[in-house]
Design goal:
Blueprint (H helix, E strand, L loop, with lengths): L1 E7 L5 H11 L7 E7 L4 E7 L2 H4 L2 H6 L4 E7 L14 E5 L2 E11 L2 H7 L11 H11 L4 H11 L2 E8 L4 E5 L8 E4 L5 E4 L2 H6 L3 E5 L4 E6 L2 E6 L9 E2 H7 L5 E2 L2 E2 H15 L6 E4 L5 H11 L7 E3 L12 H11 E3 L1 H4 L3 E6 L8 H10 L4 E6 L21 H4 L2 H8 L3 E4 L2 H8 L6 E2 L1 H4 L21
Parallel strand pairs: 14-23, 17-20, 20-21, 21-22
Antiparallel strand pairs: 1-4, 1-10, 2-3, 2-4, 5-6, 6-7, 7-8, 8-12, 9-10, 9-11, 12-13, 15-16, 18-19
Helix pairs in contact: 4-5, 5-6, 9-10, 9-16
The protein binds iron/sulfur cluster (SF4).
Iron/sulfur cluster binds next to helix 8 and helix 17.
């Protein structure tokens, strides 16, 4: 999980726009952030650990002058959470310097590393650097080098890359991680992980970058190339629909809000319950909660108020921080809960550490009954493609039955949305999605050693 943005915007301050674009993508990663900018002659960059707002100020942005920029906000899934792994990565090749920012996770990093010349100096420990070195060590134009790297890399990657005078954006042949393209009405282009970032910088959504597509932007305009590999098929991450993406974003012109609202409606039909009200937690579950309330005819209420200045617990990768998080994050609205039979709509149960605390908090506030309704099926398998769900051990649904999970959470009842209900809610076809963590079938299989239970607990 990371957020990326790239701009080619003649006459504009691209780094400043990248900054605001990344602000719209901060939910995708909060460990580090960076921006690289080109002015036609020089490439400059700045990156640090922490939140975007704490890293950049007027003085730093003023040094990143130019009409081209790429930016990144990071949530690590491979490579340690240290500044050397922060992005964009700056690389020097025989055809010039470039900056690269990556969202996703490669599944054949060791194989790719073995293709690099002996003695290749690596600064970082992430899969992103291996991919960047592959571009450096290939031959030909930048487009040819990118195509070579795409032919060799397996796994998930949406990437923005810029030199001092060109912008490239490319997406793996399965299209696992999102990437969309927008334009300014007076000229120039933006690419971003989610369309909410386009709106933030005043750009108009054009379309999603296609799976296996390379977009090249120069002063002469925009050119598109397609790279095909063996076994490719469209496989957008279902979890983007369930949890990650902002509800005001869209994929392939389909609204995330509408999909989540429909998940809630279908959940109400699949798992009705005698209750007094419906609430949702966390924020990403609100459209599903409203959908459940609409379908069931129950009132939608605010049951827990979130302290918005505490980060998302799922995003924070440290376990001790996760367990402390919930008490810092929520405060109950007792007047809406006392004596009530409450339906709580959540979007997923991953580790199952937060849910019992939520249920306990609601009971302490006087809820008479708590009925959990989840707008996704049980998460039974790890993710090898860039989401921090790396081992069977940590997935509660991989180790316990639905009834056992209900008992562990302390809820009166528990119901998950069916896989068919989930797929139908997105408006996409089943064979257009990655459903790996739900079904165990992945678009691109990881190398055997990368399947080890803890192999991916900390990487890019
Ligand atoms: S395995 Fe799950 S989380 Fe990972 S890419 Fe596939 S759908 Fe997304």
């Amino acid at each position: 999980m990371c957020g990326i943005v790239g701009l080619f915007a003649p006459g504009r301050d691209a780094a400043r726009l990248a900054y605001f674009g990344l602000y719209a993508l901060q939910h995708r990663g909060q460990e580090s952030a960076g921006i690289a900018a080109g002015d036609g002659g020089t490439l400059r960059s700045h990156k640090e650990m922490g939140l975007l707002g704490a890293i950049f100020n007027e003085e730093i942005l003023a040094q990143l002058s130019g009409h081209i920029a790429v930016g990144h906000t990071r949530y690590s899934t491979t490579g340690s959470s240290i500044v050397v792994n922060a992005q964009p990565l700056l690389e020097r090749s025989d055809i010039g310097e470039f900056a690269l920012a990556h969202n996703g996770n490669l599944t054949n990093t060791d194989e790719l590393r073995s293709l690099l010349p002996v003695g290749t100096v690596m600064q970082a420990s992430s899969d992103t650097e291996v991919l960047a070195k592959l571009v450096v060590e290939s031959s030909g134009t930048m487009i040819e080098r990118i195509e070579t790297a795409m032919q060799k890399a397996r796994g998930a990657y949406s990437i923005v890359l810029c030199s001092e005078n060109e912008l490239f954006a490319f997406r793996d042949p399965w299209g696992v991680r999102p990437l969309c393209l927008g334009t300014f009405d007076d000229g120039g282009y933006v690419v971003a992980s989610e369309s909410c970032a386009l709106a933030t910088v005043g750009a108009r959504y054009l379309r999603d970058v296609e799976a296996g597509e390379v977009v090249h932007v120069t002063r002469d305009g925009i050119t598109s190339y397609h790279v095909h590999v063996k076994d490719e098929f469209p496989a957008l991450c279902m979890f983007e629909y369930i949890y990650f993406a902002r509800p005001d974003s869209k994929f392939d012109n389909r609204s995330i809000y509408v999909a989540r609202h429909e998940m809630g409606r279908r959940l109400a039909r699949e798992h009705p319950v005698d209750a007094d009200c419906v609430m949702a937690v966390p924020d990403s579950a609100v459209p599903g909660g409203i959908g459940y309330a609409t379908e069931s005819g129950l009132p939608y209420v605010e049951g827990l108020i979130k302290n918005r200045y505490i980060g998302r617990t799922f995003i924070s990768p440290d376990q001790s921080m996760r367990s402390r998080g919930v008490h810092l994050k929520f405060n109950p609205v007792v007047e809406n809960l006392r004596g009530q039979r409450v339906v709580v709509v959540d979007d997923s149960i991953v580790r199952g550490t937060t849910t019992p605390r939520i249920v306990a908090l609601l009971r302490e506030a006087g809820a008479r009954e708590v009925h959990l309704r989840i707008t996704s099926p049980p998460i039974l398998h790890p993710c090898y493609l860039g989401v921090d769900m790396a081992s069977y051990d940590e997935l509660i649904a991989a180790n316990y039955t639905v009834e056992e999970i209900r008992a562990k959470t302390g809820a009166d009842s528990l119901g998950y949305l069916s896989l068919d209900g989930l797929i139908a809610s997105t408006g996409r076809k089943r064979d257009e999605m990655c459903l790996g963590c739900l079904t165990g079938v992945y678009p691109t299989e990881p190398a055997e050693h990368e399947r080890a239970p803890h192999a991916l607990t900390r990487s890019s």
